[in-house]
Amino acid sequence: TMASEAEKTFKKFAVFEDSSSNGTEINNKNFSKLCKDCGIIDGKTVTTTDVDTAFNKVKLTRAKNGGAITFQQFTEAMKELAQKRFKEKSPDEGLQDIYKLMEGKSPALHLGPKKATTVGAVDHLTDTSKYTSSHKERFDESGKGKGIAGRKETTDNSGCVSDYKALAHTTRRTR
């Protein structure tokens, strides 16, 4: 049946990069991946927000599985989404259409040049030569944070803290 085909797909996505899943429950991350990879999210009628909303509506509140959902609950969530995605159809017909989208699908591995971009993005954050004034002292030459020791205030504000802060504000403004 179509449902068993969909359940096969559900299982593949449920265990994707999730060692704690035995395939009976799917977490939010993999649920939205399934919706993306199977084309249930089309960016027009069904968005990632819709998918999250549907998931949260049906998910288990048990913290043990981090709020994963069973195939039964998945079906409920899909009926919700089907009404958006296939507006002119009944929830059950819409569900069948969603099952059609899911048929024979597996989690796509999106191995792109993603990693390179994130590395570049953080580079300037850890380049201490670009730091100015008091931030400089919070890091040593290699860019490692010194934690609280690098912050000057620790010795200063032994007095009343709120007054100290107020004072700091007024002096800054008048300059």
Automatic annotation (TrEMBL):
<dbReference type="GO" id="GO:0001578">
    <property type="term" value="P:microtubule bundle formation"/>
</dbReference>
<dbReference type="GO" id="GO:0032273">
    <property type="term" value="P:positive regulation of protein polymerization"/>
</dbReference>
<dbReference type="GO" id="GO:0005874">
    <property type="term" value="C:microtubule"/>
</dbReference>
<dbReference type="Pfam" id="PF05517">
    <property type="entry name" value="p25-alpha"/>
</dbReference>
<comment type="similarity">
    <text>Belongs to the TPPP family.</text>
</comment>
<dbReference type="GO" id="GO:0046785">
    <property type="term" value="P:microtubule polymerization"/>
</dbReference>
<feature type="region of interest" description="Disordered">
    <location>
        <begin position="130"/>
        <end position="175"/>
    </location>
</feature>
<dbReference type="GO" id="GO:0015631">
    <property type="term" value="F:tubulin binding"/>
</dbReference>
<dbReference type="GO" id="GO:0005737">
    <property type="term" value="C:cytoplasm"/>
</dbReference>
<dbReference type="InterPro" id="IPR008907">
    <property type="entry name" value="TPP/p25"/>
</dbReference>
<dbReference type="InterPro" id="IPR011992">
    <property type="entry name" value="EF-hand-dom_pair"/>
</dbReference>
<keyword id="KW-0963">Cytoplasm</keyword>
<feature type="compositionally biased region" description="Basic and acidic residues">
    <location>
        <begin position="134"/>
        <end position="155"/>
    </location>
</feature>
<protein>
    <recommendedName>
        <fullName>Tubulin polymerization promoting protein family member 2</fullName>
    </recommendedName>
</protein>
